[in-house]
Amino acid sequence: MGKLGKKARKFAKKNLPSVLRDRRKKKALFKKRYSSKNVQSNVEDQAKVIDHSNERNTEVEAFEDLPLEAPFMENDCDGVVDSSDSDGYLSEDINYENGTESEPEKLLEGDKCTSELMMQNIKIQENLAIQKRKLERLKRKDPSFSKFLEKHKDIEAMQNGVVFSDEDEMSNHGRDSATEDNQGKDEGRVLTVSAISSWCRLIKEEHKEEVFVCLLNAYRAACHYGAESIGLRFQNAETFCSLVMSVLSEADNILRGLLGLSSFSYKKEAVLELKDTPQWVNVKPLIKSYLRSTLSLLDQVTDSEILAFALTRLRDSLPFFDAFPYLLQRLIKTTIHLWATGGGMLSSSSFSILLDVASLFTTDWFDNCLAKAFVAYLAQSRAMDIVNNKHLQFLRNSLVDLCSLDVQKSLSKATVSVRQLAKVLQWGLHTKKKEALQRICSWEYANCINLWVGFIARNVRDYDLQAFFFTMVQLINGVVRLFPGPRYFPLRLNCIQWLNDLSNSTGVFIPIASFVLDVLEYKTVGERGKPGPALFFQSVLKLPKSCLKSQTFQDECITSAIEQLSSHFLQWSYHISFPDLATVPLIRLKKFNESKTKESQCRVVKHLIEQVEKNVDSVQKKRNEVAFSPNDHQSVETFLQFEKSSLSSPFTQYCRSVLDKAALRGSHKNEKISLPTRDKSKRKRDDSSINVFGHKDVDTVNGSKKRVKR
């Protein structure tokens, strides 16, 4: 049939749809109508389909919006509030008597008769406002009264100025002494180093409790220095440091001495027994002032050494926090932040306090510590595009230590967390959406898996974690199969490392050789690929496309595959089934070695093949000499146990050397590795003309291009 003309095509386009529509209407008239029952069933089926589709859509939306730390969110709450409305200062006019409530107690606690105090404050403010308005009217009516107030303003300022000096402290035995400031420049009290030394001497030698109150008030002012206006001024930086170091060093011992506790007593029960005694009533405001001020210091100071020292000293006073739940909540929040964002000694000191809090106090506080630590761990993973492997590994190991304090409770949380990881993986396997793949191939997801792998490896021999172990193996296998491409080789190798760790800790065989050989056999370029940037697969999860064509990428694939195979073979090198286990990998390794011509690549692979073949021959020779059958599991488990304990075989030494080189290679790599990013902006054609010397004519003043007249 020939092609229609222009007019025919235009006519068909205009009239053909209407003709077809009329035909469909006529056919519908001759069709039999369905019964009402069938129509109703069809409507119900359609409604069910719509409901199921809506359920699937809501599930997908839930996967997209639900964070990985959701199982811990219910325990990550600050439910304890401070009922005290005090500013934290202690009254220096104190007279402690047994059986009576002291004035500092009233000032610090302030939680009794709160409504009455508020009403009194309101009345006082109203009276002050009335008196102030009267004074303003009197100033306007009588100018002489206004001049009188101005003359006496300087005298009032001089009377308010107080200086702490050496002679005043020695003469008054540590009490406040006022000296007139003739120049009227000091607006508050000035503290000196000698005054602090005198206070400390009086507290140690004469046990002056009122002097200790003055010292705590000065310490409170130092801890809030810069955050709020205070009436105390420090002579210099040395005075500030001397005050802070003196209180941090001696406050805990002084408080224990006032309570009659031993300095070696580290049990909260000893503090609980003193709660109903008169000693506790008198000393409680001093303890609260010291703890509150130190927590404020942790929020203000940025120097890591001072923070680490303050945390170390605060750790000795942990039993006192049992009487102040709000302060304990603040302590957990502050130490979690310093643990996650700090480094070195600061992170270690912070985590030591977390461990002590989780072990000393009730299980509710353990749940609180675990929830906040897990949320901070994932937040640190989520915020890092350039990964600091060393710090994240420390966070992971310390969090495993925290979970190991209560394995059963941690296991319930871990099971819920892994179930959520599995749902996200299932979402990615079914939909293959970009959002799902990005969420799985992220450090947040990977570090969550790494955490629970470490938890299993630490506790599987002492607790029943078999069900949780098999769930983790299935999850990791799913992640490996979801990302087969070469850009995801770092993620696949991390998964292989996790499977190796699980196999080593549990003694269960996990087939990973095929995963490793897939990485080894991938061929991206010829033997003469371009040299690329330095790569380290432990620091990235996904590679840019520009790295795949480099020789560095291929060398890193071979090196990482050899390391993982050595770790896998080392575990089963003394097992009676090692010859069968190594058969297929040897065939594929030999085939790979024959396809390579580069000497450096062939040498390492050939060396591995030779060592594996020697170990196969050795195990095969020993296996031929035994008389038991494969069904005798006890004899199979005791096969070559003496050789395994000695670790003297050549194959063991070879694998150890490979793994030692891998650890050394990882330590020499830069902790923070930034991969090269491909510039996606296309080069635009330059319309500027070229002069006779081959250079573009550019205006050197404003950078604009000039067109050369021809």
From TrEMBL:
Q: Name one GO biological process term.
A: ribosomal large subunit biogenesis
Question: Where does this polypeptide localize?
Answer: Nucleus
Q: Which UniProt keywords apply?
A: Nucleus
Q: Where is this region: Disordered?
A: 166-187, 668-710
Family designation: Belongs to the NOC2 family.
Q: Which Pfam families match?
A: Noc2 (PF03715)
Location (main, coarse): nucleus
Compositionally biased residues, Basic and acidic residues: 170-187, 684-699
Using the record for this protein, list the coiled-coil segments as residue ranges, or answer none: none
Q: Name the InterPro entries for this protein.
A: Noc2
- Organism name: Solanum lycopersicum (Tomato)
Keyword Nuclease present in the record's keywords: the answer is no
Q: Is Nucleus included in the keywords of this UniProt record?
A: yes
What is the protein named? Answer: Nucleolar complex protein 2 homolog
Note the PANTHER family from the entry.
NUCLEOLAR COMPLEX 2 AND RAD4-RELATED (PTHR12687), PROTEIN REBELOTE (PTHR12687:SF8)
Q: Report one GO cellular component.
A: nucleolus
